[in-house]
Inverse folding.
């Protein structure tokens, strides 16, 4: 079973379990989801990531000890506390951003990243290496909570279209919340290049770890 750490604090079980529900429905992966405390806007800059780091480590230890999981994924594009958690627990640990970077690298050579923060997540950019093409964000979509606003998908689509015009051959999402709003499905008929969803990328990473030859 895969343990999913959400960095957006919520008491809404539908929101909490949405990443796990997608993995279960699309990839037949058993999951358990937990979220850190007191971060209703999630992680969106270096300051919010710094505050979240010890919370993530504490939660990962608890999940490893109490939830019978055989791996943990930190479902956030910034891969916050990834190395700290790997040192803290005895089971494999994934990061959404790095999983997405590896997936995008397998399907394209010029990866354009679209997110909500000022800059591309460092671990994601490092994993992309010379396949990194560009990074962009919309001024109208700067927090996870902005994703539910009218016009959010349109604004993100415009950024993706601009990147493709500039030579990108794959779009990589740098926000797991893009999965929540079904951005990949929205872009499917609007772009000539594939898009990589971070929730799906984490599921593929876990499936490979478990030796599932279907992925």
């Amino acid at each position: 079973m895969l343990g999913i750490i959400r960095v957006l604090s919520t008491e809404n079980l539908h929101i909490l379990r949405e990443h796990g529900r997608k993995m279960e429905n699309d990839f037949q992966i058993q999951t358990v989801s937990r979220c850190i405390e007191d971060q209703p806007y999630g992680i969106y800059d270096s300051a919010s990531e710094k505050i979240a780091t010890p919370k993530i480590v504490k939660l990962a230890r608890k999940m490893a000890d109490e939830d019978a999981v055989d791996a943990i994924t930190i479902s956030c594009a910034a891969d916050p506390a990834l190395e700290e958690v790997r040192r803290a627990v005895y089971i494999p640990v994934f990061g959404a951003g790095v999983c997405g970077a590896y997936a995008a690298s397998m399907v394209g050579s010029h990866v354009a990243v679209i997110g909500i923060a000022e800059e591309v997540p460092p671990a994601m950019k490092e994993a992309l290496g010379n396949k990194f093409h560009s990074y962009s964000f919309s001024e109208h979509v700067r927090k996870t909570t902005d994703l539910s606003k009218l016009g959010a998908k349109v604004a993100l689509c415009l950024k993706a279209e601009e990147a493709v015009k500039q030579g990108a051959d794959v779009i990589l999402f740098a926000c797991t919340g893009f999965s929540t709003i079904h951005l990949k499905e929205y872009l499917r008929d609007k772009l000539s290049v594939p898009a990589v969803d971070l929730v799906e990328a984490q599921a593929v990473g876990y499936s490979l770890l478990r030796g599932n030859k279907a992925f």
User: Anything to note?
Assistant: The beta strands are 2-6, 31-35, 71-74, 93-95, 111-115, 132-137, 170-174, 195-196. The radius of gyration is 16 Å. The chain is about 45% helix and 15% strand. Residues 53 and 81 are 5 Å apart (CA to CA).
